[in-house]
Amino acid sequence: MANSPALVNGWLALSDTLSEGVIPAPVRERLAIATAQYNNCEYCLSAHIYIGAHVAKVDAEALERARDAESSDPHTAALIALSGAISHSRGSIDETQLKAARARVTDTEMAEVVGNPALNILTNYFNLLADTDNEWAAVTPRTHN
Fold first, then answer.
1. CA 84 to CA 79: how far, in whole Å?
2. What is the mean pLDDT of residues 31-56?
3. Which of 118, 74, 120, 66 has its CA nearest to residue 100?
4. What InterPro entries does this protein's entry cite (predicted)?
5. Is the N or C terminus of the chain more exposed, i.e. has fewer CB atoms within 10 Å?
6. What is the mean pLDDT of the segment spanning 109-133?
7. What is the dihedral of CA 11, 14, 19, 25, to 10 degrees?
8. Radius of gyration (Cα) for the chain, nearest Å?
9. What is the pLDDT of residue 122?
10. Which long-range contacts (CB under 8 A, 24 or more apart) does 11-18 make?
11. Cα(99)–Cα(102) distance, rounded to whole angstroms?
């Protein structure tokens, strides 16, 4: 990313701005984990498992469930499900999924659920393309079923 100051500045600006949003850091980390798992990005999966545990203070069971796009907390589960539906359908979720999300998620959260995975997809794809060396404790993405 350092080869493009525009990309670094854009990534930093979006990251900083979303960190001030309504979705708290522990949930943002779980969104990042679910996205990295889906995109098979070992670097980002490893980084967000570590950050989730040590910075956002998310317990190991919740981090593991995030890899499966799940949560024991119904609100967090709704956010993760919405994020997954958006990512997997490239933004074209069906009416049933949208109604389910609107029953549990605010419009502000919905907007940020689009923004957070967009940020994560950017870093997932960048690290996959660049074959970034993983300096984190390696967490290997599971094979998709």
1. 9
2. 97
3. 74
4. AhpD-like, AhpD_core, CMD-like
5. C
6. 96
7. -60
8. 15
9. 96
10. 11/119, 11/122, 11/123, 14/115, 14/118, 14/119, 15/119, 18/112, 18/115, 18/116, 18/119
11. 5
Q: Are 34 and 85 in contact (CB under 8 A)?
A: no
pTM of the predicted model, to two decimals?
0.93
121 pLDDT higher than 90: yes
> How many CB atoms are located within 10 Å of the residue 100 CB?
16
Lookup: tokens for 82: 């919405």
SS3 32: helix
- When the pLDDT of each residue in the chain is averaged and rounded to a whole number, the result is 94
The answer to whether domain 23-130 has CATH 3.90.1150.10 is: no
- Within 10 A of 48 (CB to CB), how many other CB atoms are there? 30
CA angle 126, 86, 25 (to 5 degrees): 70
- Once rounded to an integer, what is the mean pLDDT over residues 92-108? 92
Q: Where are the alpha helices (DSSP H) in the chain?
A: 5-18, 25-38, 42-54, 60-67, 74-88, 95-104, 107-130
Q: Return the pLDDT at 91.
A: 86
